[in-house]
Amino acid sequence: MNKIYALALSALLCGPALAANRQPITKNIAKSLNLVETSTRLNTTGGVQKAPQRAASFGSIDDMAGAWEWSGKNLLTSNAPSGELTITITNATTGAATISGFIQNFVLQATIDFAKGTVSIPNNQDLGEDSNGDKNYFYLKDVTADGNITDGLGSAAASVGKIEGTTIVFPELDVWAFGDYTQENLGWWYLCYANTLTSLEFQGDPNEGWEDFGTADFQDGWIMPGFEEDPSSAPWTVNVQKSTETTDLYRLNKPYLAESCPSYIKEAAKEGYIVFSIADPEFVQVLPKVYSGFDNGSNKLNLFNIEGFYIDMGLTKADIQDGLKDQNVTYSTYADGVVNIPNCRFNMPSALDKAYSWSTSENVSLADKMVAKITIHKLAGVDNVVAGSDAEAPAEYFNLQGVRVANPEAGQLVIKRQGSTVTKMIAR
Question: Which of 107, 192, 275, 329 has its C-alpha lying 20 to 30 A from 304's C-alpha?
């Protein structure tokens, strides 16, 4: 494979990598769907927000050995920061480790400070020759105040990532380069930023502590608004699981892989969850730091609501209500099997302390469109109806993209929802 010579469209340029005046890298979140903006801010005493609490993490440095998924934002036309890497602990006492699995079999030296929860990758590492016989280094590039990347070797001593749960989050504007800083006209194997590593080994059984709890109708207030679609226009049926350890805790299981999920969403989906607690029916929490299964470009989106986001920061219900009292916030509620979530937000592993909402390409906020509704059939009594009631319920039809169809044409393949029953059929 040849080296990459052109900057990607994500950098607003498609041209030679040795351009004299490099284009600004994107300072905000990648926008494969729509632009995003920061969401509701909480006014606490003195205007200072409490720091997020660290999620449960590894028991020891040895637990960090194994497979990791790499993601980040690319500045090249290909060779995006993605795929599986391997962390090997070479000295648990000193924290010495290697990171391997990159293109050209490059191996990075790293130091893990387990007590501080950091992983440091030193700047200016000699990676040896590539298959073209060219010299290569891992190095960091400086970023100017206006967002431009500078030529050559950067001044930082290392890229230092924080261990957040089972993810290592590196500073967003640490630009990693794999190439030769003395001959950048040759191009780079990788040129990327907002890098994260997520453990694939230390996840445990995702179904441990959960049991199946039937199905639910899902009006998606998180992803559909990013496509400027009305969540209520195309609900779909999802599987629901209930916690066997925590009362009133539920989750949507693989919601974006469900059969009737719109195809334009499903094509970017993987396994994931949306976890919510209805313990307080007037203050329902959708928990943050849970991967939903949906990726926006290179970002793995975590979906939550305002209540869950700030509770995770260590604030109380009273703190949140007082801090947001002047912002006309409507809180999430539960009643009769129906969860209403009027304040859907999201973030990603590189920005766990932020909450985002979608906006249009004209920078018009879509936050008020980010409204979700989950009707849990068993809690709503749907699973307990007498036999034959589904047949008496009105039928609704959707195409394979999840869009409602009023009068399906003969021969059209559609999804039919009648009561609690969802089937795929050919219209007659």
Answer: 192
**Is residue 120 domain-shared with residue 215, that is, in the same domain?**
no
Strand pairing report for 82-91 and 66-74:
antiparallel
Three-state DSSP class for 219?
strand
Question: Does residue 27 lie within any of the structural domains?
Answer: no
308, 237: one domain:
yes
What are all long-range contacts of 124-132, with beta carbons under 8 Å and residues at least 24 apart? 124/153, 124/181, 127/178, 130/3, 130/104, 130/189, 131/1, 131/104, 132/2, 132/3
DSSP secondary structure string for all residues of 325-339: TTTTPPPPEEETTEE
**Residues 298, 257 share a domain:** yes
Range of the domain at 71: 52-199
Beta strands per DSSP E along 101-209: 107-113, 118-122, 125-129, 135-141, 158-164, 167-169, 175-179, 188-199
30-39, 171-180, 210-219: least confident range: 30-39
Q: How many domains does the chain have?
A: 3
**Strand, helix or coil for residue 188:** strand
Q: Count of alpha carbons within 13 Å of 226, Cβ hemisphere only?
A: 24
Tens-place pLDDT, residues 320-356? 998 888 888 899 999 999 999 999 999 887 677 788 8
Instruction: Indicate if 291 and 371 belong to the same structural domain.
Output: yes
